[in-house]
Amino acid sequence: MTVRRLRSWVLLPVALFCAAAGVPAPAHARTAGDAVEPGGGADHRFVLVGHATGKPDDEKAFRRTVDALDGRDTAFLVVTGVKGEKEACTDKLYQKRRDMMDDAHRPVIVVLAGSDWTGCTNSAGRSDAVERLARLRELLYGSPDALGTGKLALTRQSSSPRFRAYAENAHWTVGKVLYATLNLPANNNHYLNEAGRNSEWEDRLVANRFWLNRLFTIARRDKDAAIVLFADGDLKALARPQGGLRGLLARAVPEETLPLGGNPVNDGFAATRRQVQALAQKFPGKVLLVDGAPHAGKPGIEWRGNLGHLSTGQGALEVEVEPGTKHVFAVRIAEAKDNKDAH
Predict the structure, then answer these.
(1) 110 pLDDT band (50/70/90 cuts)?
(2) Which CATH code fits 14-333?
């Protein structure tokens, strides 16, 4: 299937995307009150919008990107982060970005970025990360649906009493592909080297472990062709295991002991990376990890077996999904001229 390119534009803070997204509701997404017939809606596309930059000069360019998307049959948008690293961590800014995204005519799913909360401080200069994370959860994830007027029904981890706080982790299905979000901030998963300060990381690690096990169980039960996981941080899931003492230590420590015992190599992603690799090995379909990390050169999916990795960076990417094909996913960058697909 051939799809026209998006036009190339520099992006503004991601949440501004939605203010001008005056397009019809998606045709293939499973929305509240609608059912997707077995085997129906298999081929679809979604759009990834990368990190907010916080640059005030990007608004016009960003709106031109929205215009280029107008009329396209897009199932949903995934936006990484709501603010730039140097922007204020205020309720006012959070609410403004939230309102703009909620005006979109397509479903919008927000993936929390480390720039949204991990570096926030209070008036005394002390870390305010945990409080800001709680506030973002209230503002962005209070509804079971995605943001935007074209509603998309989500299942949130907060529906489980044990993990009531983790509303940012959500999953939904389009055709035979299971999509899900995972709170993994880019700055080493908010793992802190200072002793006794990792309770937030430890609790979230337990929640993410439970969530991943649940996702793969659902996908196997439903015989899904693929799983797509959206996060901020790059797990380095395609990297081969380390050799030497560091690799031996990492492999020797049981995953279930990490929340209490800490991470022996100070890698905040280590336990989650091992879990994803193990789960992917047992899954018969494709597993695609999408993060907000910068990329060098032309973005595309790198595969190792059935496990794939794609970084969005600060750009806008369109991903075409065809479960019946070899690669399942085809990525197109917003470029002025037509180039070949990246796989």
Answers:
(1) very high
(2) 3.60.21.10
